[in-house]
Amino acid sequence: MHTTNYTNTFIAIADDSSAERGIVPPEKVDNPSVVSRTWRMIAEHPYEYCSDDVIFGVWADRQGISEGERDAAREEFFEKGRACLRASDLGKKYGWGIHHDAEGRVAVYGLESAEYQALVESGDVAVVKAMRSSRR
Q1: Taking the CA of residue 70 as centre, how many other CA atoms within 13 Å lie in the half-sphere pointing to its CB?
Q2: Which one, 3, 7, 33, 35, has the greatest CB density within 10 A?
Q3: Where are the domains of the chain?
């Protein structure tokens, strides 16, 4: 079984991001985008979910998978590798860093926040960059 979880890691914004601060992704009422669902799930529940919970939960919601079918669907979903939160537009476009704590649970911090800077500079967590949007 594959996983997208990290522990004690901070995903900083991508090198080619033009973001100057964390911006809440726009949300369409009738069909929210992947990035708006991801942001909402993490921002409204900091350190409650791990990356796998978020990535699968957003996918399952968009697919309309019922609660009763989710355990089996999750197992099947992670039978193959999935893109982790480094590939999310949160860090590529919208200026959000994603912190994974010691248990792998996640929270978001805007580029402009003191918490973002503290995590980047602390030396207590591994810092990796979000994936670039463009090739070099």
Answers
A1: 15
A2: 35
A3: 9-129
The two tokens of residue 53 are 């919970």
Element of type H or E holding 109 = strand 106-110
pTM of this structure: 0.91
Query: pLDDT tens digits, residue range 93-130?
Result: 999 999 999 999 999 999 999 999 999 998 899 999 99
The residues facing 53 across adjacent strands are none
pLDDT tens figures, 32-75: 999 999 999 999 999 999 999 999 999 999 999 999 999 999 99
Pick the closest to residue 125 from 93, 92, 102 (CA basis).
102
Contact 53, 4 (CB under 8 A): no
Nearest to 119 by CA among 9, 5, 2, 1: 9
DSSP assigned state of 131: P
